[in-house]
Amino acid sequence: MVHPIVVAGSQELNDKVAEDLSRNRLYSIFLANSSIETIRMVQGQKPHLVILNFDVFTPKKKSLIVNLKEMGYSDSILVLAKFVSADSAEAITALDKCVLIERPYVANDFYGVVGKLVSGHDVRQRVHRRFFTNQKAHIVPFSGQEMNSILRNLSRGGALIEYDGTPVEKGEILRVKVDLKDLSKSYNVHAKVVWSEPKDSGPSTIGVEFIKAGDIYRNLLQKI
C-alpha cells in the first residue's frame, strides 16, 4: 500500500525531508510551498500524513492546522520546527493527532515516527529535544543538603541526573545548581522529581521536570 504524504514548507526545508523519506518506496511525496497549495494538495491527494515544515513555529501558524481539520482532514499532522516556544508547543500538542519534532532531528528517529503515523499508530509526544551531557551540577532538595551530581540527559523540559548522597524520593522539589565556569556564574533552576532509582552502590539516578517559580509552593503544599 502506497502512503501519500504532503510536505509543506520552504523549498530548501522540503527537499531535506523528501530526501529522508525517499528511503521508503511506499511513500509518495507531494511538496507544497504555501498554505493555499497545502490545502489544495490535501484536498486532491488525500494524504495519510501532512508534514508542516517550519524554521519557527508560532501560535499564529496553528491556523493552518485548524483549517486542515475544519475541511475534514482527519489523519495525522507532524510539525517540524527549529524553534518552538513553550506556548507554541502547547498549542500543537493540544490538538488531536498532532505531533511535534524539533529540528535538527535524528534521521532514524524521524523515519520511525513517520512510519507509525502513516500506519495510524499513536506516537507519544516528545516536546523537548534531548542533549546528552556530562555537565557537573549540584542538587539541593528542600528536605536535605546539597549533593554533587551530573546531568546526563538534558532537555528544555527536564533532565536525567546521577548523584551521590541521600536518596531523593519521587515528588521531591529540589534546586539544580550549575556552575558556568566560562562565565564565572552559577545558573539555578527548580525541578520536581518524576521518578527515582536509588542504588546501594554507585550513583543513584533521578528524572526531573523543570518547574516555574510559581509552581514551587503549590507542589510543596500538596505534600503537606
Describe this structure in words.
The protein contains 6 helices and 11 strands. Helices cover 27% and strands 40% of the residues. The protein is an alpha/beta fold and 224 residues long. The mean pLDDT is 83. A hairpin with a 3-residue loop joins β7 and β8 (158-163). The longest helix is centred in the middle third of the chain and has 12 residues, at 107-118. It folds into 2 domains: 3-118, Rossmann fold; 131-222, Thrombin, subunit H, CATH 2.40.10.220. The relative contact order is 0.10. The strands form 2 sheets. A 6-stranded antiparallel barrel has the order 6-7-8-11-10-9. Strands 2-1-3-4-5 form a 5-stranded parallel sheet, with helices on both faces.
Entry summary:
The chain has 224 residues and is α/β, with parallel strands linked by helices.
CATH architecture of the largest domain: 3-Layer(aba) Sandwich
Q: Let me know the CATH homologous superfamily of the largest domain.
A: Response regulator
Widest beta sheet: strand line-up:
6-7-8-11-10-9
Structural class of the helix and strand makeup?
Answer: alpha/beta
With helices defined by DSSP (H or I, 4 residues minimum), what is the helix count?
6
Average pLDDT rating: 83
What fold name stands as the CATH topology of the largest domain?
A: Rossmann fold
Output the helix-strand order: EHEHEHEHEHEEEEEEH
Low-confidence spans: none
- The CATH first-level class of the largest domain comes to Alpha Beta
Radius of gyration: 21 Å
What attributes does this structure have?
single chain, 27% helix, 6-stranded antiparallel β-barrel, Rossmann fold, 2 domains, 5-stranded parallel β-sheet, alpha/beta, 6 helices, 224 residues, Thrombin, subunit H
